[in-house]
TrEMBL record:
It comes from Photobacterium galatheae. It is an enzyme of class 6 (ligase). Substrate binds at residues 52, 57. This is 5-formyltetrahydrofolate cyclo-ligase. Keywords: ATP-binding, Ligase, Magnesium, Metal-binding, Nucleotide-binding. It catalyses: (6S)-5-formyl-5,6,7,8-tetrahydrofolate + ATP = (6R)-5,10-methenyltetrahydrofolate + ADP + phosphate. It comes from the Bacteria.
Length: 195
Protein backbone atom coordinates (compact mmCIF):
# COMPACT_ATOMS: atom_id res chain seq x y z
CA UNK A 1 0.00 0.00 0.00
CA UNK A 2 2.60 2.53 1.12
CA UNK A 3 4.96 1.57 -1.69
CA UNK A 4 2.33 2.06 -4.40
CA UNK A 5 1.25 5.39 -2.88
CA UNK A 6 4.89 6.50 -2.87
CA UNK A 7 5.27 5.43 -6.49
CA UNK A 8 2.11 7.34 -7.49
CA UNK A 9 3.30 10.45 -5.68
CA UNK A 10 6.66 10.25 -7.46
CA UNK A 11 4.88 10.13 -10.81
CA UNK A 12 2.53 13.03 -10.02
CA UNK A 13 5.17 15.37 -8.69
CA UNK A 14 7.70 14.54 -11.40
CA UNK A 15 5.12 15.43 -14.07
CA UNK A 16 4.44 18.76 -12.34
CA UNK A 17 8.07 19.82 -12.24
CA UNK A 18 8.74 18.56 -15.79
CA UNK A 19 5.88 20.84 -16.94
CA UNK A 20 7.60 24.02 -15.65
CA UNK A 21 8.61 26.32 -18.49
CA UNK A 22 12.19 27.45 -19.04
CA UNK A 23 11.18 30.89 -17.78
CA UNK A 24 9.65 29.44 -14.61
CA UNK A 25 12.79 27.36 -14.08
CA UNK A 26 15.00 30.43 -14.41
CA UNK A 27 12.87 32.47 -12.00
CA UNK A 28 12.79 29.59 -9.52
CA UNK A 29 16.52 29.17 -9.59
CA UNK A 30 17.11 32.91 -9.07
CA UNK A 31 14.70 32.98 -6.12
CA UNK A 32 16.34 29.96 -4.49
CA UNK A 33 19.81 31.46 -4.96
CA UNK A 34 18.66 34.68 -3.26
CA UNK A 35 17.76 32.64 -0.15
CA UNK A 36 20.68 30.24 -0.40
CA UNK A 37 23.33 32.96 -0.49
CA UNK A 38 21.95 34.52 2.72
CA UNK A 39 22.15 31.35 4.81
CA UNK A 40 24.67 31.16 7.64
CA UNK A 41 25.01 27.42 6.97
CA UNK A 42 26.24 28.22 3.48
CA UNK A 43 28.60 31.01 4.59
CA UNK A 44 30.13 28.81 7.29
CA UNK A 45 30.58 25.81 4.99
CA UNK A 46 33.67 25.30 2.83
CA UNK A 47 33.12 21.82 1.39
CA UNK A 48 29.67 21.70 -0.18
CA UNK A 49 28.02 18.80 -1.99
CA UNK A 50 25.36 19.65 -4.56
CA UNK A 51 23.98 17.88 -7.64
CA UNK A 52 23.36 18.62 -11.31
CA UNK A 53 19.70 19.12 -12.11
CA UNK A 54 17.79 16.52 -14.06
CA UNK A 55 14.14 15.66 -14.74
CA UNK A 56 12.82 19.19 -14.07
CA UNK A 57 14.63 19.57 -10.74
CA UNK A 58 15.41 23.07 -9.56
CA UNK A 59 18.35 24.31 -11.68
CA UNK A 60 21.41 24.26 -9.47
CA UNK A 61 23.64 25.84 -12.16
CA UNK A 62 23.47 29.40 -10.73
CA UNK A 63 24.09 28.08 -7.20
CA UNK A 64 27.19 26.22 -8.32
CA UNK A 65 28.50 29.33 -10.13
CA UNK A 66 27.90 31.38 -6.98
CA UNK A 67 29.72 28.80 -4.82
CA UNK A 68 32.74 28.73 -7.11
CA UNK A 69 32.78 32.52 -7.29
CA UNK A 70 32.84 32.66 -3.47
CA UNK A 71 35.74 30.25 -3.14
CA UNK A 72 33.75 27.24 -1.95
CA UNK A 73 34.85 23.72 -2.83
CA UNK A 74 32.04 21.93 -4.68
CA UNK A 75 31.38 18.17 -4.89
CA UNK A 76 28.95 16.10 -6.95
CA UNK A 77 27.53 12.64 -6.30
CA UNK A 78 28.88 9.74 -8.35
CA UNK A 79 27.34 6.26 -8.31
CA UNK A 80 29.59 3.92 -6.35
CA UNK A 81 31.19 1.46 -8.80
CA UNK A 82 30.75 -1.63 -6.58
CA UNK A 83 28.62 -0.75 -3.58
CA UNK A 84 25.08 -0.77 -4.97
CA UNK A 85 22.84 2.05 -3.75
CA UNK A 86 25.76 4.13 -2.44
CA UNK A 87 27.18 7.44 -3.59
CA UNK A 88 30.68 8.85 -3.66
CA UNK A 89 31.28 12.59 -3.69
CA UNK A 90 33.87 13.96 -6.12
CA UNK A 91 35.42 17.38 -6.35
CA UNK A 92 33.75 19.36 -9.15
CA UNK A 93 35.42 22.33 -10.86
CA UNK A 94 34.87 24.05 -14.22
CA UNK A 95 37.35 21.71 -15.93
CA UNK A 96 36.15 18.44 -14.41
CA UNK A 97 35.96 15.53 -16.85
CA UNK A 98 32.35 14.42 -16.98
CA UNK A 99 30.38 11.49 -18.35
CA UNK A 100 26.79 10.22 -18.15
CA UNK A 101 25.96 7.54 -15.58
CA UNK A 102 23.41 4.79 -16.11
CA UNK A 103 20.56 7.12 -15.19
CA UNK A 104 21.72 9.51 -17.93
CA UNK A 105 22.92 12.05 -15.34
CA UNK A 106 26.25 13.79 -15.86
CA UNK A 107 28.82 13.01 -13.16
CA UNK A 108 32.58 13.54 -12.79
CA UNK A 109 34.65 10.64 -14.15
CA UNK A 110 35.63 8.51 -11.16
CA UNK A 111 39.14 9.20 -9.96
CA UNK A 112 39.97 8.21 -6.38
CA UNK A 113 42.17 11.29 -5.98
CA UNK A 114 39.05 13.47 -6.28
CA UNK A 115 36.88 11.58 -3.77
CA UNK A 116 35.92 13.45 -0.60
CA UNK A 117 34.81 11.28 2.35
CA UNK A 118 31.24 12.22 3.27
CA UNK A 119 32.16 13.01 6.89
CA UNK A 120 34.57 15.71 5.63
CA UNK A 121 31.80 17.58 3.82
CA UNK A 122 30.21 20.56 5.61
CA UNK A 123 26.89 20.81 3.82
CA UNK A 124 24.94 18.50 1.55
CA UNK A 125 22.43 20.08 -0.84
CA UNK A 126 19.93 17.34 -1.38
CA UNK A 127 17.66 16.71 -4.35
CA UNK A 128 14.23 15.20 -3.90
CA UNK A 129 11.04 14.37 -5.73
CA UNK A 130 8.70 15.56 -2.95
CA UNK A 131 8.65 16.80 0.63
CA UNK A 132 5.89 17.30 3.15
CA UNK A 133 4.91 19.65 5.97
CA UNK A 134 7.14 17.75 8.41
CA UNK A 135 10.25 17.83 6.24
CA UNK A 136 9.91 14.21 5.20
CA UNK A 137 11.58 13.57 1.88
CA UNK A 138 10.76 11.31 -1.05
CA UNK A 139 13.51 10.59 -3.57
CA UNK A 140 13.50 8.87 -6.95
CA UNK A 141 13.32 5.48 -5.22
CA UNK A 142 16.97 4.44 -4.99
CA UNK A 143 17.42 5.37 -1.32
CA UNK A 144 20.80 6.96 -2.15
CA UNK A 145 20.44 10.00 0.08
CA UNK A 146 18.82 7.99 2.90
CA UNK A 147 21.99 5.89 3.01
CA UNK A 148 24.29 8.91 2.66
CA UNK A 149 22.54 10.84 5.43
CA UNK A 150 21.91 7.96 7.81
CA UNK A 151 25.03 8.79 9.93
CA UNK A 152 23.88 12.37 10.27
CA UNK A 153 20.33 11.29 11.14
CA UNK A 154 21.29 8.71 13.77
CA UNK A 155 24.52 10.11 15.19
CA UNK A 156 24.54 13.75 14.21
CA UNK A 157 27.87 13.35 12.42
CA UNK A 158 28.66 14.36 8.87
CA UNK A 159 27.27 17.11 6.66
CA UNK A 160 23.99 18.81 7.45
CA UNK A 161 21.50 18.34 4.63
CA UNK A 162 19.81 21.26 2.92
CA UNK A 163 16.99 20.35 0.53
CA UNK A 164 16.40 22.27 -2.70
CA UNK A 165 13.03 22.05 -4.46
CA UNK A 166 10.32 23.79 -6.41
CA UNK A 167 7.21 24.84 -4.46
CA UNK A 168 5.14 22.38 -6.53
CA UNK A 169 7.09 19.51 -4.94
CA UNK A 170 5.47 20.08 -1.56
CA UNK A 171 2.70 17.64 -0.61
CA UNK A 172 0.65 17.54 2.58
CA UNK A 173 1.78 14.19 3.89
CA UNK A 174 4.27 11.60 2.69
CA UNK A 175 3.92 7.98 3.76
CA UNK A 176 7.34 7.31 5.29
CA UNK A 177 9.47 4.28 6.00
CA UNK A 178 11.87 3.61 8.86
CA UNK A 179 14.94 4.35 6.73
CA UNK A 180 13.74 7.71 5.35
CA UNK A 181 15.81 10.65 6.58
CA UNK A 182 13.74 13.83 7.08
CA UNK A 183 15.46 17.08 6.18
CA UNK A 184 16.07 19.87 8.74
CA UNK A 185 15.76 22.60 6.10
CA UNK A 186 14.49 23.02 2.54
CA UNK A 187 14.72 26.05 0.28
CA UNK A 188 12.06 26.64 -2.36
CA UNK A 189 11.57 29.79 -4.46
CA UNK A 190 8.92 31.10 -2.08
CA UNK A 191 10.08 29.88 1.34
CA UNK A 192 12.82 28.68 3.65
CA UNK A 193 11.28 25.73 5.48
CA UNK A 194 13.00 24.50 8.61
CA UNK A 195 12.10 22.08 11.35
N1 LIG B 1 20.18 3.47 5.32
C1 LIG B 1 19.79 2.47 4.50
N2 LIG B 1 20.38 1.25 4.59
C2 LIG B 1 19.98 0.26 3.76
N3 LIG B 1 19.03 0.38 2.82
C3 LIG B 1 18.42 1.55 2.70
C4 LIG B 1 18.77 2.65 3.52
N4 LIG B 1 18.01 3.69 3.15
C5 LIG B 1 17.22 3.26 2.15
N5 LIG B 1 17.46 1.97 1.87
C6 LIG B 1 16.77 1.16 0.85
O1 LIG B 1 16.65 1.93 -0.35
C7 LIG B 1 15.45 1.58 -1.01
C8 LIG B 1 14.80 2.81 -1.56
O2 LIG B 1 14.48 3.72 -0.51
P1 LIG B 1 13.33 4.79 -0.70
O3 LIG B 1 13.19 5.55 0.58
O4 LIG B 1 12.08 4.12 -1.22
O5 LIG B 1 13.91 5.69 -1.88
P2 LIG B 1 14.02 7.27 -1.98
O6 LIG B 1 14.50 7.80 -0.65
O7 LIG B 1 14.98 7.47 -3.09
O8 LIG B 1 12.64 7.76 -2.28
C9 LIG B 1 14.57 0.86 0.01
O9 LIG B 1 14.37 -0.46 -0.44
C10 LIG B 1 15.36 0.86 1.29
O10 LIG B 1 15.30 -0.37 1.94
MG1 LIG C 1 13.66 7.47 1.18
Amino acid sequence: MTQSTRQQLRQQVRLKRQALTLHQQEQASKAVLARFNQLQDVHHAQHIAIYLSNDGELDTGPLIEWLWHHGKTVYLPVLHPFSKGHLLFLHYHPDSRMHCNRYGIAEPVLDVRHVKPVHELDLMCTPMVAFDEQGQRLGMGGGYYDRTLSQWHHHGTGPRPLGLAHDCQQVRHLPCEAWDVPLPAIITPSAYHHW
